[in-house]
Design a protein that fits this description.
Length: 1235
């Protein structure tokens, strides 16, 4: 690229993070003859480039984070050099030229983080040095001569070396402000030189083997000392001299053996930061409140308890951070919560039981860390704070939800519910005695009253405003116009002449030297600022119209002239001046007269119809949350099966997706292509999505031919590390240019880094962008364009790199993708349909403000349904069986239904399907007898119900076979008197269950396997249990025979098979010590029903189990539950939004594992814990709303059942623990839907 002639005017450039490995350092640096400062950090240099030898005016050189071992012989020839920063390199003693320190202007020397073993010998000659940093080396001694000559030093850092002592000549450094000696083995030297440093402000002696005996004597004489660090030493107490330093602002005494502080700390009235972490402190002094300037207090890892924190700590009105992690705190004083500026409160890993109620009223609290405090009960928030809190625009406060459910709200006591155990009561009494309960109540009540009064006042004012009638002109809303993006803030504040030219619909300020030189095809605004007779600023505004100007420039000149008048508040009129027809007052403003220039300089805002030649480009798209487009060579070899690629050929934009690429990346890349077409191509480009192996010939031509074998594999180009972006800010002075880099946090560009008054160069190696702010001047724009060309040629790049110009507000989509969150994918609410958007609008915020989200949590506040009494269950069973006229049973064998053997009635297999034809008689209503009528009484009516029962592991083919065969026959026989009821395993209705009279058995597997004599039987283990009613009693086979599944309140059946033809096995009916006698009888009858011949059946009570077969068959003795209290509390709720709004509904008491819906969230209460069960297909919205609902439910139970506090636990599908699964009868593997 041709030279632009701008390099000699560059005074400073930052080339940090460029790769200059090998011989890649640019030769063009030699042309920057006026260079004063140069940054070469992180540039992979292993030696100092010789090009620097010609930079005779270089004053500041930074070469941090490289691999340089020697500074070279030419560096001392740079006579103007004053600052040298060489930290984080590999410089050795021989690599530092002795002549370097003869430079008369050298004032800053930074050789830290290198491999020096000695102080450079000639360093003593550098008498002008003010800043000396030799930290992180292996220096063992400082020569005595060093500080004889270097008496002007203000900063010395010798930390992380091997120093054992300091030279006595250091006392000559009377101007020294900062001395850092951290991590040096200074042994027991008392360092008497330090008190002589009268101007010292910062003293760091961390890990220097300091003790009380070797603390420098006379330290109190340093009256300017503000920052002291004596951490990581062996101090048993705070050194006495420190108590006399009233100027201290920062004090670090962490990692010592300090056990107490003196009351003399009241001297530290200016102290802002105090770090006492990792000591043995048991209490803080009562005079702590006198540190009026204290902002940060760290007391982590000590032995502080509630009594160790003075109640007067609340007088530290400037305290912002209080960190007391890993102590013995059971509570904190209420006074701590009166520190109104507190932002961070760190209390993790303590023994906290509760916190003061007033904690919620801290106005600026940002971080509250109370992790690892297992017994902590957080105080409830005051009503004044919770009533307006919303989540997804839903108020989840307990009182609001109770009100919506029609229940009475809970009366707030303003106090934390008492926790069981004496420690809380003791601490509450202690706090009352020490802090004064009456005083705290007054403060808390006062703050609440203020908040309440403020809310009432606001409501009254709003009502008054609503009631007050408005005039007709007050109803007219004046649109808010922001001129700050168009005109500078200080425009019209200095008497002068200012001019703007119209460019792309907006005014751009003209340089002072060019005012009065008008282009014939342009329009201008001229502002004259002057001081009138009243000594006030006044203005006159003209807009000048060129003879050949386009319509948009004429209109914008008139419009923005009025805007300028409104911005200034001027009372003058805007005056129109046309070319060749200007009045004398206008011409008199220009001392050199007005000159016309043919043509136009600025661009029109109108679209121009012309054929544009687009450059063929190929971009690789990476990322899911934020999609990043990286330019790659336009070649088929650049394609990679793991990524998405965007091919831009102008009239067509291809989005190619590899077979291993992520769908999110593909979707977002397609949206980027849509935006390119809409914003940059006027919708004329065609967007084509191409999947791997579906490419058409046009696509292969766009990427210069297909790859070999027509197979796209992993490309080696993809493995090349993407260079970090570099953002240069172009600075223009009087006769010079600076090109510093803008610091990019975490290497992630954000839009806020750009200033509309500046011009930036964004270097992404394969793409270079010049971003021009709206308020930037024309000269700096021109300089930036030339600098970008030089930067393009200076750095080694691929030959397909392009240079683009971006005006603020018209940036290309590729440029925007380099920034995080700039014009990202439009947020879409997938829960809304297109009709809903048309009907209610697209702005979700407006919708949420207009109407609240509907929710129904009433099920959470309903009382638990009590278990049906035995008498009622027996009566229902009797009534339903009396109505039953007959029942025929069938089972599916192969592809047809056959009659079920009588001996198998009531025994169901999980892989089979059954059909039960039940005929019920329906008695007619009794009519009064008529003596005259002698007709025969009519027959009773009947109806038939066909129950189709499907096992958990049975396929749906049984249902299809039934509907097309047996159901057809039943319909032809019974006509309209037939009803078909389909039922699934463990989800049967009570009427169906009543026909089996509690003898309802569910076995694993199929009948075919059970009745096959060739299949060797395995151990079988059954659990008899009733859920919600005695009618819903089932005997379900468990997945495995394990002793941990036993319960003293239950009845279990265990079959242990024998390898014998005469005796097939032994059957134990195990009766728990707390089991119901009726259940034991039912268990014995079921055992005889299932195992009739060739089995020995034994009834055994808990504690009388035989060792030989029972415990062996059940896998050995294991601990098991002794009670079943959870059965009195278990409740299962379903959280769903299938109705269009969020609802919580309760499952009946007879629930099972299959009631856990995979696309919903379930809440399970077992009396001790509340589990939040999350399915695999649950949406994030449902999870968040269900979490808030569970919190409301626990808060409600805290008031209803204070004796049984619940904890909220998470249960993910497939990862449930025993406390969760025991609530479900017969827990086993999930029923999976075949794919």
């Amino acid at each position: 690229m041709a030279s632009t002639g701008v390099l000699p005017f560059v005074r400073g450039i930052d080339l940090t993070k460029n790769d200059f490995k090998g011989n890649a350092f640019p030769d063009m640096i030699e042309e920057m003859s006026g260079l004063r400062w140069l940054r070469l950090s992180n540039t992979q240099l292993d030696s100092l480039p010789k090009h620097l030898a010609k930079l005779n005016k270089l004053e500041d050189l930074t070469i941090k984070n490289n691999s340089i071992s020697t500074l070279g012989s030419f560096l001392p020839n740079l006579q103007a050099l004053s600052k040298l920063n060489c930290r984080y390199n590999k410089i050795t003693d021989s690599g530092v030229p002795a002549e370097l320190f003869d430079l008369s202007e050298l004032s800053v020397v930074d050789l830290s983080h290198n491999e020096l073993t000695d102080v450079p010998p000639q360093l003593e000659n550098a008498k002008s040095v003010l800043v000396l940093n030799l930290s992180h080396n292996q220096i063992e001694m400082i020569p005595n001569q060093l500080f004889i000559n270097l008496t002007d030093l203000v900063f010395v850092d010798m930390s992380n070396n091997c120093l054992e002592t300091l030279p006595p000549q250091m006392r000559r450094l009377t101007d020294l402000r900062t001395l850092i000696l951290n991590n040096n083995p200074l042994i027991h030297a008392q360092l008497r030189q330090i008190p002589a440093l009268s101007a010292l402000q910062t003293l760091h002696m961390r890990n220097t083997q300091r003790s009380i005996s070797n603390i420098p004597i006379g330290l109190e004489a340093l009256t300017y000392l503000q920052d002291v660090d004596f951490s990581h030493n062996d101090l048993p107490r705070v050194p006495e001299p420190l108590y006399k330093l009233s100027s201290l602002k920062r004090l670090n005494l962490s990692n010592n053996q300090i056990s107490e502080l003196s009351l003399m700390i009241d001297v530290w009235v200016n102290l802002e930061t105090l770090n006492l972490s990792r000591n043995n402190i048991k209490s803080l002094p009562m005079s702590l409140h006198k540190l009026a300037s204290l902002k940060k207090l760290y007391v982590n890892v000590n032995q502080l308890d509630f009594e160790g924190i003075p109640a007067s700590i609340g007088k530290l009105h400037n305290l912002e951070i209080f960190s007391a992690a890993r102590n013995n705190l059971e509570m904190i004083p209420e006074g701590l919560c009166r520190c109104g500026k507190l932002k961070k409160l760190i209390l993790n890993s303590n023994r906290l039981i509760t916190l003061p109620d007033i904690l919620h009223l801290l106005p600026e609290l940002e971080t509250l860390d109370v992790r690892d405090n297992p017994d902590l009960v957080m105080p409830p928030k005051p009503v004044e704070l919770t009533k307006d809190l919303a989540f997804y625009n839903i108020d989840f406060s307990l009182n609001n939800q109770l009100q919506l459910a029609g229940a009475a709200p809970v009366e707030s006591t303003g106090q934390t519910p008492p926790h069981k155990g004496d420690p809380v009561a003791r601490k509450l009494r202690l706090r009352k005695r020490r802090d004064g309960q009456k005083e705290s109540d007054k403060v808390l009540k006062g703050m609440r009253d203020v908040a309440k009064k403020k809310a009432e006042t606001t409501n009254e004012e709003q009502k008054k405003e609503e009631l007050k009638p408005k005039k007709w002109n007050e109803n007219l809303e004046r649109p808010h116009l922001n001129y700050s993006e168009i005109f500078d803030e200080d425009v019209g504040q200095i008497p002068d002449l200012t001019c703007w030219e119209m460019e792309n619909f907006v005014p751009t300020q003209v340089e002072e030297a060019l005012i009065g030189k008008f282009y014939e095809a342009d329009c201008y605004i001229i502002l004259k600022t002057f001081i009138d007779d009243t000594q006030s600023l006044n203005w006159k505004i003209w807009y000048w119209i060129g003879e050949n100007a386009s319509l948009d420039k004429k209109a914008c000149a008139a419009i923005h002239a009025v805007n300028l008048r409104n911005l200034l508040g001027a009372e003058c009129r805007t005056i129109r001046e046309e070319m060749n027809d200007e009045d004398d007052d206008f011409l008199d403003m220009f001392p050199n007269g007005v000159s016309y220039i043919e043509g136009g300089r600025t661009a029109s805002g109108f679209y121009t119809v012309e054929d544009v030649e687009y450059e063929q480009r190929l971009y690789r798209a990476t990322g899911t949350k934020y999609v990043h487009l990286e330019r790659v060579p336009v070649d088929a070899g650049s394609l990679d099966c793991r990524h998405v690629f965007l091919v831009d050929v102008g009239e067509k934009i291809y989005v190619w997706t590899g077979k291993l690429a992520k769908g999110v990346t593909r979707t977002k890349t397609r949206l980027i292509a849509e935006k390119i077409n809409k914003n940059e191509r006027k919708g004329k480009s065609e967007i084509i999505s191409v999947a791997q192996k579906d490419e058409l010939p046009d696509f292969w031509r766009a990427v210069n031919g297909p790859p070999k074998d027509m197979e796209v594999k992993i490309s080696p180009i993809t493995n090349v590390k993407v260079a970090d972006p570099r953002l240069y800010k172009v600075e223009l002075g009087k006769g010079y240019l600076n090109l510093p880099q803008v610091e990019i946090p975490n290497n992630r560009l954000v839009q806020t880094l750009l200033d509309s008054r500046c011009v930036y160069i964004l270097d992404c190696i394969t793409d270079i962008f010049v971003w021009i702010g709206k308020k930037s001047t024309r000269l700096i724009r021109a300089a930036a364009l030339k600098l970008s060309q030089e930067l393009h040629a200076m750095i080694k790049r691929p030959n397909f790199t392009t240079l683009s110009r971006c005006l603020q507000g018209t940036e290309s989509q590729i440029f925007k993708t380099k920034f995080i969150g700039w014009d990202d994918v439009i947020p879409v609410d997938y829960t809304r349909t297109a009709d809903s958007v048309i009907r209610r609008g697209a702005d979700l915020k407006v919708i949420m403000e207009r109407d609240k989200m509907k929710t129904d949590l009433s099920a959470l506040f309903m009382p638990r349904q009590p278990m049906m009494s035995k008498e009622e269950a027996d009566q229902l069973t009797q009534d339903w069986n009396e109505d039953l006229d007959g029942m025929e049973s069938f089972v599916l064998e192969g592809k047809k239904f056959v009659r079920l053997p009588e001996e198998e009635l009531g025994i169901f297999c999980s892989e089979d399907c059954y059909v039960f034809l039940c005929r019920y008689w329906v008695p007619l209503p009794e009519e009064e007898e008529d003596e005259d009528q002698e007709e025969e009484p009519p027959e009773d009516e009947y109806r038939c119900i066909v129950y189709f029962w499907q096992g958990r592991n049975a396929s749906n083919m049984g249902w299809l076979t039934f509907t097309f065969s047996l159901q057809k026959k039943f319909e032809s026989l019974f006509k309209d008197k037939l009803e078909v009821v389909r039922q699934f395993q463990q989800q049967e209705n009570l009427k169906f269950l009543s026909h089996f009279k509690r003898k309802f058995v569910i076995r694993e597997g199929s009948r075919k396997c059970k009745n096959d004599p060739t299949i060797k039987p395995l151990t079988e283990f059954y659990h008899l249990r009733a859920n919600g009613s005695h009618i819903a009693t089932r005997c379900v086979q468990l997945m495995k025979a394990d002793a941990s599944l036993l319960n003293s309140c239950g009845v279990y059946i265990l079959m242990v098979p024998f390898d014998s033809q005469d005796l097939k096995g032994i059957v134990y009916v195990w009766v728990g010590s707390k089991a119901d006698h009726a259940d034991a009888v039912i268990g014995e009858e079921i055992a005889y029903l299932m195992y009739k011949d060739s089995y020995t059946i034994q009834m055994i009570n808990e504690g009388e189990e035989p060792e030989n077969f029972f415990w062996v068959g059940i896998g050995g003795k294991k601990p098991y539950d002794k009670n079943e209290d959870f059965m009195n509390y278990i409740r299962l709720f379903r959280c769903s939004n299938e109705k269009g709004y969020f609802t919580v509904s309760e499952k009946c008491a007879d629930f099972c594992q299959d009631d856990l819906a995979d696309d919903d969230v379930m809440i399970l209460d077992n009396g001790e814990n509340v589990f939040l069960w999350i399915g695999k297909k649950t949406s994030d919205v449902e999870i968040k709303l269900a979490f808030k609902s569970a919190q409301v439910y626990i808060q409600h139970l805290r008031n209803k059942q204070p004796e049984r506090p619940r904890k909220l636990l998470l249960a993910m599908k497939y990862k449930e623990n025993r406390r969760f699964t025991k609530c479900f009868h017969g827990w086993g593997q999930y029923k999976e839907v075949p794919t």
